[in-house]
Amino acid sequence: MDVGEFIVPVPYIKQVKAVIRRLLLSTLDDPNRKLSTAISMVVAAIAVYDWPESWPDLLPFLLKLIGD
């Protein structure tokens, strides 16, 4: 390993991504319209790469949010 390199173990990355996804979804229905729009755009950007394989609970969560 080079002094300038830092390699993060894959399980740790998965844990961090799970926390980020959970935080994004928990704030998706924020009453501030600009904030909720920005969060929606971030969720969409992540979903392009992670849904459905790595983020299978995204669609059920969104459908529940719409129904509530």
Automatic annotation (TrEMBL):
Alphabetical list of InterPro entries matching this protein: ARM-like (IPR011989), ARM-type_fold (IPR016024)
Any single GO BP term: protein import into nucleus
Domain of life: Eukaryota
GO cellular component: cytosol; nuclear envelope
Protein name as it appears in the record: Importin N-terminal domain-containing protein
Organism: Gossypium darwinii (Darwin's cotton)
